Each structure stands twice: as structure tokens, then as C-alpha cells.
């Protein structure tokens, strides 16, 4: 049966379409030297459109070794998956950093760790075409986000029903509270009161329903908020630490490096370098 033949399914798909969003943090054309391992709170796509000279590689310690970045290949790494890479000059690729959210505060892939490499030359040609269009602003943004939805749909797990129901009903109030109030000293007891559950019941049921622990979810949200402040604000690292309720800059830097693999200063410097290359 086609979902258009079933009014209930049609309504459900419409509801999900209205709840889904893509938050795009970086869209760049890259060609540079860098070797590192890091773990970020957003999904990443690398789409290779040409390669000359030494071969670049990318992969994840979670899923095995690094793979060659051949022209026409597309790599997807979900939020929270460590990415190891050795980029070399001569490997030109599109890089996307983004979250796919069901509601404004829930990254779908956080519960479904995923890495995949596939050959997708037609998608990369379309990205190249969009990047070359004599348009800017909202029109190009629509095309780019449309491509991200199209690409990401192919990586989604087959059965999302339990996760969808949990996020959109049982924990919606609590997740909204976390989104508005995330900081280093938020407590499970505080969240249990918001959710209307006992502490132990909340921790157990959240893990069962979403596939991740509540503690991991909180660390993810805190890392994401920190990354966005480092990326989008002019606040100093000390001011960001204070805003996120860390005891001091040292504890904030320790947390961020433990979660991401790079220090706040290194992360911010990378953002500046990407912006400079794409001017």
C-alpha cells in the first residue's frame, strides 16, 4: 500500500515532516592539509569531487581503519562518532556539519551510531552545480538543505518507531527543558521532577526508549551548546565556561577536549581557518 492511499499514514508523514529540521553549521569546499581524530556533536558528510597528488584518507576508530577519499565517494559520520582523517592538498571535497533534529532539540543519529561510505558521483555533481549557480541567499540555502535531507534519508535506520514515539511524547517536556536550560550542573533529579518520574525510572526508561543513556544525552547537548558558542559568538572561552556554569575555564576546556578530542581554542581556530578559506 502506498502511504497516499492511507489517510492515517499521510497525516503521520505530514506530522514528521513538520517536526524535522536540519541545522547546518558548516558548508564548505575544502582542500587543505590536516591530520587529526575528533568527535563532534553533529553529523558530518565529506563528498569528494576531485583528487590529485597524495591520497587523503578518512574513517572512524569505532568502525575500523581509514579509507581512501576517491573522487565520487561520499562519507557519512553520525553525531558522536569519532572521525580520524588525513586530508592532503589536492583532495577537493564538500564538507557539511549539521544536525538532523526531530523537534528542535533531538539529534536522531545520536541513538544510531553510523558510518558509511558510498559512491555517489551524481550527488556530488549536483552539489557542484548548486555551488556554481549565480544565486545566493535563501534560494541556494533551500537547495543545499534539500540535498542534505535527500542524502541523510538513505542513512536512517529502518525502524524509528520507538525512538520517534519516545521523543515526541514521553520525553518532549523534559527535552525542551534541557534545550532551554542546559549547563554543566544540571541534575538527573531536576530532570526527573520535570518529567514527572522517579530518578531511577527516568534513567532506565530513557536508555531503553532512545538507545542512549540520559547522561550521554546531556553531555552531547552540553558539547553542542559549547561548540555553537565557540563557533557563533565572540565570547571568550572564560566567558563561555561561565555561561555554561562550569567552575572555571580549566574544567570547561577539560570537558570539551574529553568529549571532542580537541581543545576549545583548537576548535575555534579551525572554524576561523575554514571561514578564511571560503571567503
CATH class of the largest domain: Mainly Beta
List the helices and strands in order. HEEEEEEEEEHHHHHHHHHH
Please name the CATH topology of the largest domain. Answer: Jelly Rolls
Q: Assign the CATH architecture of the largest domain.
A: Sandwich
**First CA to last CA: what distance?**
49 Å
Question: Which helices and strands appear, and what pairs or packs with what?
Answer:
Elements: H1 7-19, E1 20-30, E2 34-38, E3 43-51, E4 57-59, E5 66-68, E6 73-77, E7 83-87, E8 91-102, E9 115-119, H2 121-132, H3 138-153, H4 161-170, H5 172-181, H6 188-195, H7 199-210, H8 214-232, H9 237-243, H10 249-260, H11 264-277
Keywords:
single chain; about 280 residues; alpha+beta; Jelly Rolls; Arc Repressor Mutant, subunit A; 2 domains; five-stranded antiparallel beta sheet; about 20% strand; globular
Question: Quick recap of the structure?
Answer:
With 279 residues, this protein is α+β, with helices and mostly antiparallel strands. Helices cover 48% and strands 21% of the residues.
Can you tell me about this structure?
With 279 residues, the protein is an alpha+beta fold. The protein folds into 2 domains: 18-153, Jelly Rolls, CATH 2.60.120; 161-277, Orthogonal Bundle (Arc Repressor Mutant, subunit A). 48% of the residues lie in helices and 21% in strands. The chain is built from 11 helices and 9 strands. The strands form 2 sheets. Strands 1-8-3-6-9 form a 5-stranded antiparallel β-sheet. The protein has a 4-stranded antiparallel β-sheet with strand order 2-7-4-5, with no helix packed on it. The longest helix has 19 residues, at 214-232.
Amino acid at each position: 500500500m502506498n502511504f497516499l492511499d492511507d489517510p492515517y499514514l499521510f497525516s503521520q508523514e505530514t506530522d514528521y515532516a513538520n517536526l524535522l529540521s536540519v541545522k547546518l553549521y558548516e558548508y564548505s569546499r575544502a582542500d587543505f592539509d590536516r591530520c587529526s581524530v575528533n568527535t563532534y556533536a553533529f553529523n558530518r558528510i565529506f563528498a569528494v569531487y576531485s583528487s590529485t597528488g597524495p591520497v587523503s584518507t578518512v574513517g572512524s576508530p569505532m568502525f575500523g581503519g581509514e579509507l581512501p577519499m576517491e573522487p565520487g565517494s561520499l562519507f557519512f559520520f553520525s553525531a558522536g562518532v569519532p572521525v580520524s582523517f588525513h586530508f592532503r592538498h589536492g583532495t577537493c571535497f564538500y564538507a557539511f556539519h549539521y544536525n538532523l533534529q526531530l523537534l528542535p532539540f533531538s539529534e536522531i543519529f545520536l541513538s544510531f551510531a553510523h558510518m558509511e561510505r558510498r559512491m555517489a558521483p551524481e550527488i556530488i555533481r549536483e552539489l557542484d552545480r548548486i555551488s556554481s549557480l549565480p544565486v545566493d541567499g535563501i534560494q541556494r540555502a533551500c537547495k543545499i538543505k534539500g540535498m542534505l535531507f535527500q542524502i541523510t534519508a538513505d542513512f536512517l535506520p529502518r525502524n524509528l518507531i520507538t525512538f520517534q514515539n519516545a521523543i515526541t511524547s514521553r520525553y518532549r517536556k523534559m527535552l525542551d527543558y534541557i534545550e532551554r536550560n542546559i549547563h554543566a550542573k544540571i541534575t538527573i533529579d531536576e530532570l526527573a521532577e520535570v518529567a514527572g518520574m522517579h530518578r531511577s525510572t527516568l534513567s532506565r526508561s530513557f536508555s531503553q526508549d532512545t538507545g542512549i543513556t540520559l547522561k550521554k544525552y546531556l553531555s552531547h547537548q552540553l558539547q553542542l551548546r559549547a561548540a555553537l558558542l565557540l563557533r557563533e559568538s565572540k565570547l571568550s572561552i572564560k566567558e563561555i565556561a561561565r555561561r555554561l556554569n562550569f567552575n572555571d575555564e580549566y574544567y570547561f576546556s577539560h570537558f570539551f577536549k574529553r568529549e571532542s578530542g580537541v581543545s576549545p581554542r583548537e576548535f575555534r581556530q579551525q572554524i576561523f581557518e575554514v571561514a578564511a578559506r571560503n571567503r
